[in-house]
Design a protein that fits this description.
Phosphatidylinositol Transfer Protein Sec14p, alpha/beta
């Protein structure tokens, strides 16, 4: 199964949908690279993302991996703001995401249990 990284639309709201191909470091790294490529093509401003992390299962990136992903995205976050619904991120992990969101100022993250709730979140305030 290949990773999904494509633009979709819901009720006139365009968003980028990402879903890793499986559970592990390589799948998450591939998704981050794909996201980086697609964001470079976008004009500055708000980008809406829906990321289905359920295929990753219980995989948790090591701190070094997170630092690398942050480095890859750093330049993009100077020109873009992100609103991202993270499907499958609940409980304590969702609280961590909210904290990361509050500290960044350029990324709004929300852990959601379902794709439907994620779409609601990314489309909020669009009209």
């Amino acid at each position: 199964m290949a990773a999904t990284c494509e633009w979709r639309e819901h009720d006139g709201v365009r968003y980028l949908f990402l879903c890793p191909a499986g559970s592990g470091r390589e799948q998450l790294a591939e998704l981050v690279r794909d996201l980086s490529v697609l964001l470079r093509e976008e004009p500055p401003g708000l980008v809406r993302l829906l990321i289905d992390l359920r295929p990753l299962g219980r995989y948790v990136p090591a701190p070094g991996e997170l630092a690398e992903y942050k480095r890859i995205q750093h330049g993009l976050l100077q020109t873009h703001t992100l609103r991202a619904g993270l499907v499958g991120v609940t409980g304590l992990n969702a609280a961590v995401m909210r904290g990361m969101s509050a500290m960044s100022g350029r990324i709004t993250l929300l852990g959601v249990p379902t794709l439907e709730r994620g779409i609601e979140f990314v489309a909020r305030d669009a009209h």
